[in-house]
Write a structure and sequence with these properties.
250 residues; alpha+beta; oxygen-dependent coproporphyrinogen oxidase; 8-stranded antiparallel beta sheet; globular
């Protein structure tokens, strides 16, 4: 059992319990990919698996799970709402490297500077954030350009301890995901054309930023090559732009 498998197992079970889930199509060749890295007795297999679902209010629920031995474990789990809902994104980046664990957990806002939006989607979860701060203190340096894409309830921490991940981080992940699905339950479709245009632009802003700055790009390129990596990023992980282009053509 890898470090982040319990996170993924919990999420999938909870999603099945609370949503009308359907599979989300994963392009051929991206469901599973492996490579051998290192030399001699240090050689390890790195396996990347992809999971995808959708539901009536959520356009894409997807996970990329990288398993590369004790010093390389990654789970990137993101939920993108349909474009006629003002829901934030759910984002969990759980990364284990030789130097320790990097943990980022948030409900990433469409409109960070809108007080009404903050009152609707950030205020209700601040108490969850505060409850975990004592165990998961602020992780330090964070790119200035990334700040607009995160909420005041952004849980960002670094730890050396596997035990912290298995207890406090897993508990925080569960609480954030439960709270997010409560928002999904309550969400009403947006019908105003200006608001819909703003939502689409906000989603595209976020996806373009994430696709361009994806911190896993270097890692995936090293393991699987440039062509596979770019197609994985644009054709599955952050595929909205492509889906909209296809939709406009149809």
């Amino acid at each position: 059992m890898t470090l982040y498998q319990p996170f993924l197992d919990y999420a999938i079970a909870l999603l099945h319990e609370r949503l009308d889930l359907q599979p989300y199509p994963i392009p051929t060749g991206f469901e599973s990919k492996s490579a051998l890295v290192g030399k001699g007795k240090h050689q390890e297999e790195v396996l990347t698996t992809s999971t995808g679902f959708q539901s009536p209010k959520l356009r894409q629920i997807r996970a990329a799970h990288v398993q590369g031995g004790k010093s390389l474990q990654v789970l990137n789990f993101v939920i993108f709402p349909h474009l006629n809902y003002d829901l934030p994104f759910f984002g969990a980046d759980l990364v284990t490297l030789p130097g320790g664990h990097l943990i980022a957990l948030d409900m990433q806002p469409l409109f960070r500077d809108d007080p009404a939006y903050q009152a609707k989607y950030t205020q209700p979860i601040l108490s969850i954030f505060e409850a975990y701060q004592q165990h998961l203190p602020w992780g330090g340096d964070f790119p200035e350009e990334a700040r607009p894409f995160f909420s005041p309830a952004f849980l960002w921490t670094r730890t050396q301890q596997d035990e912290t991940v298995k207890t406090h981080v897993l508990a925080a992940f569960k609480d954030y995901l439960q709270a997010y699905l409560n928002f999904v339950d309550q969400a009403q479709p947006v019908t105003d054309s200006h608001a819909l245009a703003d939502i689409e632009q906000a989603q595209l802003r976020y996806l373009r930023y994430r696709a361009e700055k994806d911190p896993a790009r270097g890692m995936f390129t090293r393991f699987y090559g440039t062509e596979w990596t770019e197609e994985y990023i644009h054709g599955f992980l952050f595929d909205l732009e492509r889906k909209l282009t296809i939709g406009h053509r149809a």
